Amino acid sequence: MAPSDQSSTDPTDDTEGLGRRARNRVARHDELLAAATDIVAEKGIDGLTMQDLAQRVDCAVGTIYTYFDSKSALLAGLQVNAIQQLLSTYHEQVVVWEQYLSDDNTDGRTAALARVLAFARLFVAFPLVHPREFELLQRIISTPEQLIDTTDGHAVQFASMALMNNARNLIDDAVAAGALTAGRPGTGAADDSVSRTLRMAGALNGGLLVSNVASNPDLVDIDTFNGQRLARVLSEDLMMGWGAHPETLDEAVKLLDRMERDGALLPEPAVAGTDS
After folding, report:
1. Tens of pLDDT along 224-241?
2. d(Cα 180, Cα 243) in Å, to the nearest integer?
């Protein structure tokens, strides 16, 4: 079974039909977000000010406010941009995945489960593919203060749901293909795909954060606290908990390992010192 049509959630902006002034505004907007991301990476969220951003891009502070009317709006824009980076990368990779699955003649049940796990592996690879954006999201999420007001938060919520809806569709497709159960195995209790998607995102993000413990290799074993590896294992644990047959899960994991070796699973990691 092919994955559900998700083209409507692709956030990629098409500026071909815009006039020159509009294209320049889009370019300046992107430049401001990139510069703000750099500042957060260097100085933290508290170090991001409109004055500092204006100096970074060599413009008047008033110019910044024509794009973002508050720091809340700027931080929301940064979050939306980071989420859209992952969503855009996902849409690009789906094309590669589907071609590989077609050439491999993978059976429908294994393919459906592999797609869910492929999404998880892409999510886990986010800090390697888009390191600045991942770090920014982690900083904002881990800050206890309410940095973004409700109005600006709607845009972040919309972008987040666009990303999560892709995972939810993949989970629904896996249930339809018989790769996962619709409810909790052995209990018959309901377990909807929205809840599963949120739990998967939380588990993967938590697994990645474990790597922070390994920042000092003299104190802990880096392999034990490898967040990338732990998050992958967590995704497979979730599939088992959602009713995946062990043999099907094993075949799906082997398939993804082959895809990764063949360069068909994940995009290339960002090169240090370059834009992600």
Report:
1. 778 888 999 999 999 999
2. 5
